Amino acid sequence: MSKSLSRIYPLLTQDQIAARVKELGIQLAADYAGKDLVVIGLLNGVYPFFADLTRAIALDMDVSFMRVASYGHGFESTGEVKILTDCDTSIRGRHALIVEDIVDTGLTLHKVRKILMDREPASLRICTLLDKPSRRRVEVPVDYVGFSIEDHFVVGYGLDLEGKLRNLPYVGIYNPA
Ligand code: 5GP
Ligand code: MG
Ligand code: MG
């Protein structure tokens, strides 16, 4: 970790993240009040954001997870998206909210959205901590965005560098050179 830590430049502090998560929680609680809500996290990257966000939404909800992999290692998602573990909670007729760490090309969410739409939820929305709109290859409706960022490869607060650095408590830009 120490070797890669020297290549990380802080982008979002723990305090900035916490403040924004709190705002999102308030907004989501207002939008989903009185609704049968299922919040679905996309593992692995979402784990810290999911835990913080769901606890900031003062409503009854079901929580569930899907594990997906964009094939390939390193900095690029290949566009080949594989469901490793499916969500085991029924969303038919219920209000489903997908929670993701970052939307980059949009390929992952495009596919996940399609799969979940086939299950006929009453509604399906997307909440992401980070969005890199300049990188989009397919259009995907992102309803709630924590932070919109420039085209940088970021790590921490769930986001990995080849499996590592997810447990950094803040978000940083990884600069390999
Ligand atoms: P997409 O399918 O939208 O291109 O990418 C989605 C996935 O690619 C994210 O869930 C994340 O796992 C990975 N990803 C995209 N951009 C970044 C980034 O800047 N840093 C890290 N660590 N992962 C990223
Ligand atoms: Mg992800
Ligand atoms: Mg990754």
What features would you describe in this structure?
The protein is α/β, with parallel strands linked by helices. It has a single domain, classed as Rossmann fold. Helix content is 24%, strand content 31%. The chain is built from four helices and nine strands. The chain has helices at residues 2-5, 14-31, 47-56, 107-117, and strands at residues 8-12, 37-43, 62-70, 81-85, 95-103, 123-131, 144-148, 154-155, 171-174. The strands form two sheets. It has a six-stranded mixed β-sheet with strand order 4-3-2-5-6-7, with helices on both faces. The radius of gyration is 16 Å and the shape is globular. The model has no long low-confidence stretch (mean pLDDT 94). The site of one magnesium ion (MG) has 5 residues, from strand 5. It holds the Pfam family Pribosyltran. Belongs to the purine/pyrimidine phosphoribosyltransferase family. Its cofactor is Mg(2+). One of its GO terms (molecular function) is hypoxanthine phosphoribosyltransferase activity. It is found in: Cytoplasm.
Quick overview of this protein structure:
The chain is α/β, with parallel strands linked by helices and 177 residues long.
Detail the topology: elements first, then pairings:
Layout: H1 2-5, E1 8-12, H2 14-31, E2 37-43, H3 47-56, E3 62-70, E4 81-85, E5 95-103, H4 107-117, E6 123-131, E7 144-148, E8 154-155, E9 171-174
Helix pairs in contact: 2-3
Residues 42, 45-46, 100-101 line the site of one magnesium ion.
